[in-house]
Design a protein that fits this description.
Elements: E1 3-7, H1 11-22, E2 26-31, E3 43-44, H2 46-51, E4 59-63, E5 65-69, E6 75-79, E7 87-90, H3 92-105, E8 109-119, E9 128-134, E10 143-149, E11 151-154, H4 161-165, E12 173-182, H5 185-190, E13 194-200, E14 204-213, E15 218-225, H6 232-242, E16 251-261, E17 269-270, E18 273-275, H7 277-280, H8 291-308, H9 318-346, H10 350-359, H11 363-375, H12 383-403, H13 418-429, E19 467-468
Parallel strand pairs: 1-2, 1-11, 2-8, 5-13, 11-18, 16-19
Antiparallel strand pairs: 3-7, 4-7, 5-6, 8-9, 9-10, 12-15, 12-16, 13-14, 14-15, 17-18
The structure holds flavin-adenine dinucleotide.
Length: 470
């Protein structure tokens, strides 16, 4: 009988374990931290809710409005007219816990343990011996144990130990930084079903900055490529500064950072070890989306294991497992490519970003973007739409040169008048009102925290008045 270890209990691991357990395959699902709150915006596409049978309780907020904000603060509103359509906003600790428990309920053996090393056998073909620290007794260090299996699914995220054990090769990563900010009721109600996406060199030279509504707070963050990692602190100041009027009196309750893979690893299957989700490198360019692709890749990989093993009666070969990679690349290769091209065109400089936001004002562009995001389907354009889109791209890029700003201003408050904002600004200039310092979160959320996560964001002239929780 086939024995499978799934390392990592995020969306990719749990969705893989669920399929394996359902097929009656002996499955162990390892998760080092059962209440792990993965640093994440938590936005999921609508199709994921049905496809993965997610209950309503997983979705904290249904976002139907999206505001794109250009470097010159041009705001373009995108509204999902159909009331059945939305972007789901989740807390990862809630969603991950649900998916993990569902897999365990179907028969996967959930182990609260950190996989520390893997003996991969002759020529990495297995059987595989995992050494792990078992935390199920509740101690801080855990009890060292071993487990032998025939196959491993590496679902252990961007710092994957399985990838190292199988010599999967490296990938470039982006660094994402995020602060969770609790807002007073008035400000929070503005973000009720609205997400904001800011572009500009001030918030990210490579991607975008975001304000995403969560259960009782907003997640405010930015991402940049690894080579710009040293800028991350100033970029976070940038997004705080631009959104400052809308984050008035916010309280920073958590600071977090995590790597995001930029492309797949050179090898995703070696011997009888297969990578899925972030461990494989399945986050899209442009949007930085990875939850759906993690869940989907876990499921597709597991389905291939079930099929190739005849329901667990035989041990699949490397060639069998590589069928999953072929299917994956055929299904999503074009999506990744298109998003990479869009990133290269529109995130190049502020003129291109102005053009990008301007283009998003077009209803055809909005429908196209949302259909492909919400439903993960390639939307065919009619010839007229194609011509229009091409002309729009050229025109916007030309106009963008003229519109791009020399410096960045905060956007206006959405719930207060300019007079009230000015009064507050003057009040804050009073010497007794000190700018607070945001301290780093000390929770061991990341396997190896990027240095940026432990850097305090010191108050600056353009910082919003945010209190920090010690
Ligand atoms: C700041 C930020 C914002 C993001 N926002 C979004 C967003 O809004 N929408 C979106 O779709 N994507 C977003 N992403 C990307 C998304 O978070 C990832 O693509 C997704 O979490 C990948 O899921 P996964 O299951 O592959 O890996 P992970 O979610 O990283 O899960 C890996 C799991 O493995 C566990 N683990 C690791 N090592 C071991 C070990 N040795 N032993 C046992 N357990 C181990 C970890 O504790 C973790 O629970 C964001 C990423 C970041 C960093």
């Amino acid at each position: 009988m086939l024995r499978v270890a799934v390392v990592g209990g995020g969306p990719s691991g749990s969705c893989a374990a669920e399929v394996l357990a359902k097929a009656g395959i002996q499955t162990w699902l390892f998760e080092r931290k059962l209440d792990n709150a993965k640093p994440c915006g938590g936005a999921i596409p609508l199709c994921m809710v049905d496809e993965f049978d997610l209950p309503a309780s997983i979705i904290d907020r249904k976002v139907r409005n999206m505001k794109m904000i250009s470097p010159s603060n041009r705001e373009v509103d995108i509204h999902l007219g159909d009331e059945n359509e939305y972007i789901g906003m989740c807390r990862r600790e809630v969603m991950d816990g649900f998916l993990r428990d569902r897999a365990a309920g179907l028969g996967a053996q959930l182990i609260n343990g950190l996989v520390q090393s893997i003996d991969t056998g002759v020529k990495r073909q297995g059987p595989y011996t995992l050494q792990y620290a078992d935390y199920s007794a509740g101690g801080p260090t855990g009890e060292i144990r071993t487990l032998e299996v025939d196959l491993i699914v590496g679902a252990d995220g961007a710092n994957s130990r399985v990838a190292k054990a199988m010599d999967a090769g490296d990938y470039n990563v982006a660094i994402a930084f995020q602060e969770r900010i609790r807002l007073p009721k008035e400000e929070m109600s503005y973000y009720e079903d609205l997400a904001e996406m800011y572009v500009g060199t001030d918030v990210s030279p490579d991607f975008y900055g975001w304000v995403f509504p969560k259960y009782d707070h907003v997640a405010v963050g930015t991402g940049t490529m690894q080579q710009n990692q040293s800028l991350i602190k100033s970029l976070q100041k940038g997004i705080r500064s631009r959104a400052s009027a809308r984050l008035l009196d916010g309280e920073v309750i958590k600071v977090e950072a995590h790597p995001i893979p930029e492309h797949p690893r050179p090898r995703r299957v070696v011997g009888r070890m297969a990578l899925v989700g972030d461990a494989a490198g399945y986050v899209t360019k442009s949007s930085g989306e990875g939850i759906y692709f993690a869940a989907k890749s876990g499921r597709m990989c597991a389905e291939q294991i079930v099929a190739a093993s005849d329901g667990g009666r035989t041990i699949p070969t490397e060639k069998d497992l590589k069928v999953y990679i072929k299917k994956w690349d055929r299904k999503y290769g074009a999506t990744y490519k298109v998003l990479e091209i869009l990133q290269n065109i529109f995130y190049r400089n502020d003129a291109a970003r102005e053009a990008f936001v301007e283009m998003c004002d077009d209803k055809d562009v909005q429908r196209l973007t949302f259909d492909s995001y919400l439903y993960k389907r390639v939307v065919m354009m009619n010839p007229w739409q194609q011509i229009k889109l091409t002309l729009l791209t050229f025109a916007s890029i030309l106009r963008g040169q003229a519109l791009a700003p020399q410096s960045y201003q905060p956007v206006a408050s959405a719930v207060r008048s300019p007079e009230e904002m000015e009064a507050r600004r003057l009040a804050r200039l009073h010497p007794t009102v000190a700018e607070p310092v945001v301290s780093a979160d000390s929770e061991p959320a990341a396997e190896s925290k990027p240095a940026a996560a432990s850097v305090a964001l010191d108050g600056g002239a353009r910082q919003p008045a945010l209190a920090s929780k010690s």
